[in-house]
Every structure is written in C-alpha cells, then in structure tokens.
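I need you to check the entry underneath: sequence plus fold tokens. Let me know what the token row says about the fold.

>
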Amino acid sequence: MSVNSGGPPPLPVRVRCFPGEGLISYARRLSAANHLTVEDVESALRSQGYVFPYRRDSEERQRIWRNLGLLHAFAFTETEPDVTIPISYRRLCAKCSAGREADGLLSATAGDVCLRHHRWLGDGVQVDVSRVPEFLTAERAFRRVLMRRGVSLGSVVLMNCRSIGQCLPEHVVQPRLRRLRLREAGTVMLGYPETVALAAMLTDDAFLNQVLSPARPESRRAFLDESIKAAVHHMELVESWRIRNVLWRSLKMDYEHLTSARLRGVAPDPSIAVTTPFWTSRPRWEED
C-alpha cells in the first residue's frame, strides 16, 4: 500500500476497510476517527484544488479516499456486483466488520444471513440465528438454488413471496422468537425460511409446468396444495387457501411483469423470465 503522489496525504488516524465495505461507509468512519465529518474533509480538499465529481462513488472520489486512508488500489471495487443481478449497498455483518457499523456491497450470492457468523443481515435487529437451523438451511438454499436461477434479494419473485410471513401460525412464530431471544420481529425476518422455500418452488420447472398447465382448475389447485405442504410442511395446519392466494397472486404479478416488459421492449427480471415458457394464457385462477 502506498500513497498516490497525485493525491492528498493520508489522515493521521487510519482505520481498516472491511471486505465489501463501500466508499460512503468507509469515508464516514475514517472521518469520525479523525474527529471530522466527510463534509469537513472534502471541503478542505476542495480549497486545496481537489475536484470531487457529483457522483458519491465516482472513481476520482474513490482514489482520493484511498489516499486519505492509505488503502490499496482495489479498495471499494473488490466486490462489484454481477451486472445481471442488481444489488444495493447493505449493512455488513457486525462480526465481519469487527463490531463497527459499516455498509457495503455484499456478494451477490449472499441472502439475508451471514453464514460465516450466523447473523441476520436483513431488516431488524442483527441477531444470532444459529439457534434456528431453518434460517441457515434457507440461506444455503438461497445460495445453492435461487442464485443459479437468477433470483437475488431484490428479485420480484422473492419480494412477492415475503408476504408469506404474514401467514405464519403462532405455533411456528412463538418458538422461533424464543430461540432468537426476541420479544417480537418483523414478518420478513420470521418468514425467511418459508420465503426461500416458496421462491424455489415458484422457479422450479416441474412446478411451473404443472401449475400453469391448461389442466382443470381443481387438478391444479390440488397440485398446488400438495406442493405447499412439501415446501413448508410445518404449516399444514394453516388454512391452505391463505398460502395458495399468496402464491397465485405472485404468479399473476409475474405474468403482469412479463407483459409490461414486453410492451416496453425491455428485458424482464431474470427470476421471472424463467417462467416465460410455461405460460399458456392469462392467469384466471379466481374465475376458475
């Protein structure tokens, strides 16, 4: 690591840049360690003739802050996301960042759980989920199955399935809260295992071929009920129509997304594009 001769000298107090950490997060932490704000630092540098582009994550700004922190030349670019899978900055695992509050670009293959430290990374409290094995199982399935099908955290399919958390019965919710040592938690977090399972089901070729076939409505409905029980067997005591409605609403939204993308002449979300060959007509479940 060396200071670029064309850039400013490093600040007196240095801080470590965590793997995947973004420029904005690092600049905030480095400035605070030197009892300054990011605005203080950049204003002082502007007065010395340094130019900061409008974009907060521009290459020039990255170069200047690398010099200020005495970082290597690849800092802030080591975990660029796959261009085919849009992903935004997220908070990093607190254990991965040595207890510091930091944000960055996590690997595009990561879901809402840090498998290294077994911590929840989604909305809500960042708790240890190792006492709830189904969270770890879901995360492995997310990385092994969903990512290969183009499903990321921001994918429409996964977002649609998140409402399944609202269908969780108390005999699933309460034990899960106790093991997480929480009094309450959002349905997105509590339903993560079911969300992943249902998203995997909704992007499975065999499932789509059957449920979107021109078969009789009662036949498709029976197949869907059986698939739900296979994917989330512990929820079999819940009225099946609630989960069925979530799934069918998701399928209809997929169809509308595909139709809209075709009319606008743009590429559909990768996780929904996989369903294209299976549509035989506009969904008519409720009329059936």
Remarks:
- Residues 178 and 184 are 9 Å apart (CA to CA).
- The chain has twelve helices and four strands.
- Residues 129-278 form one domain.
- The first helix runs from residue 23 to 33.
